[in-house]
Design brief:
- The chain has a five-stranded mixed sheet, with helices on both faces.
- It is globular, with a radius of gyration of 17 Å.
- By secondary structure, the chain is of the alpha/beta class.
- The protein has a single domain, classed as Nucleotidyltransferase, domain 5 (2-Layer Sandwich).
- The protein has helices at about 55-60, 65, 70-85, 95-105, 120-125, 135-140, 150-175, 180-190, 195-200, and strands spanning about 5-15, 25-35, 35-45, 90, 115.
- It is built from nine helices and five strands; from the N terminus they run βββαααβαβααααα.
- It binds one DNA strand through β1, α1, α4 and α5.
DNA sequence: TGCCAGGCCCTCTTTAGGGCCTT
């Protein structure tokens, strides 16, 4: 008891803003139970438009690969089942939550899941990291990686390892048996100077 | 037509500006 389940997810997209027409082109998600990855979900998605050469270069996902991919709505239905009502985590969650909510909106679904941001939490837990990009934190904490970056499942797995690492570090640094999701969310909203206070207090 | 993100966080702040993160 006490070890919560969460889904860590990551999107590759055509750009930065769903409000300006950008769509998702790949999703990766992993289920974390008892601080271990216990299930995985990944799919490319055909956004119905050409992606820029910048995105092709950035992700390694090509227009050719997407032409054979399933429609976004179809994948969103499957993603909806995968995430169920589990709390969600993403690195810079404001980005992924915007896209998730936009794509769910297109299938007339409204997200009920809570969201936590591993980037905001890492700024509190690892203030001395050179920066808080996912890639940097993976190196900084010597986390498991297959060396692939900017692909959805690889990034989701690295984010999951970061998430697990942060929970384990809080447990050992503050002698805690468990670190509930709500505390992680609270951390993200806590001023850096008040972090010690929060973790010692609760 | 052409424009175009958005939210957090720090500081030489709050009557603001700019860097960080995500694609």
């Amino acid at each position: 008891m006490g070890n919560f389940t969460a889904v860590i997810l990551d999107f590759e997209t055509t750009g930065l803003s769903p409000n300006y027409g950008d769509r998702t082109i790949e999703v990766g998600a992993v289920l974390v139970t008892n601080n271990r990855i216990t299930d995985r979900f990944q799919s490319l998605m055909n956004p119905g438009m050409k992606i820029s050469s910048f995105i092709e270069d950035y992700t390694g996902i090509t227009n050719r690969m997407l032409s054979d991919a399933p429609a976004i709505n179809e994948v969103m239905q499957k993603l909806k089942s995968f995430i169920a009502r589990h709390p969600l985590v993403a690195h810079n969650a404001s980005f992924d939550s915007r896209f998730l909510d936009a794509e769910f909106g297109r299938i007339n679904h409204r997200r009920v899941n809570e969201f936590a941001c591993s980037m905001l939490i890492s700024r509190r837990i690892y203030p001395d990291a050179p920066n808080h990009r996912l890639e940097t934190l993976v190196r900084y904490k010597s986390l498991k990686t297959d060396g692939i970056h900017h692909r959805a499942l690889a990034d989701a797995e690295m984010t999951a390892h970061l998430w697990i690492s942060m929970i384990n570090d809080i447990k050992s640094d503050y002698c805690r048996n468990e670190v509930p999701f709500g505390l992680m969310q609270q951390l993200a909203k806590t001023k850096r100077k008040k972090v010690q206070e929060l973790l010692l207090d609760t």
